[in-house]
Each structure stands twice: as C-alpha cells, then as structure tokens.
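2024-03-11 09:14:02 DEBUG pipeline.ingest accepted 1 chain
2024-03-11 09:14:02 DEBUG pipeline.ingest length=90
2024-03-11 09:14:03 DEBUG pipeline.predict start
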Amino acid sequence: MDANKIEPKEVVPASRKLSRTDAAALAKAASVVIVAKGKNVRRFEPGGKAPKDVVDAMLGPTGNLRAPTLRLGKTVLVGFNDESYTSALL
C-alpha cells in the first residue's frame, strides 16, 4: 500500500482476533470476496449474504479471520496474493 500511497482508514492489530461473526459481517457487506491461501485464489460474490462456504474460506485453521484482510469499498481481500492486491489497488 505504501508503493501506491494508500493510507488505511483502520488497522486492526493481530492481537485482536476476528471471529466467524466478523468474517460473516464482512462477507455480507461485500459484493466480491477474494480469498488467497498459498497459490490458490478463490473469488466469491456473496450477493448480500454470508454463505457458509465463503465464511469458511475466510477463516484460518484457528477459526479466526485470516490475515491480512483488506476491505476496499465493496471488495474484501483475505490472505495475500500479489496479483490480487495489484489488480485491486490499481
């Protein structure tokens, strides 16, 4: 984000764990959710709902929201994938 001179409105420290409920709220408010786990990238269009498969994809093995998570308007990026971040930020 520094390279694109983007300043976050809110930064949540890693010590504050975000739960399934938080992930569901993000999914419900998003028109697109992109989840990266390693080289695997999945794109969801939840349509104002929080389907179980979308929320499950957003959570890590501990049951907390995966990091990093970035919300850009109605797009939510979960996990890190350079290509996904580049296309979302440009």
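2024-03-11 09:14:41 DEBUG pipeline.report The mean pLDDT is 89.
2024-03-11 09:14:41 DEBUG pipeline.predict end
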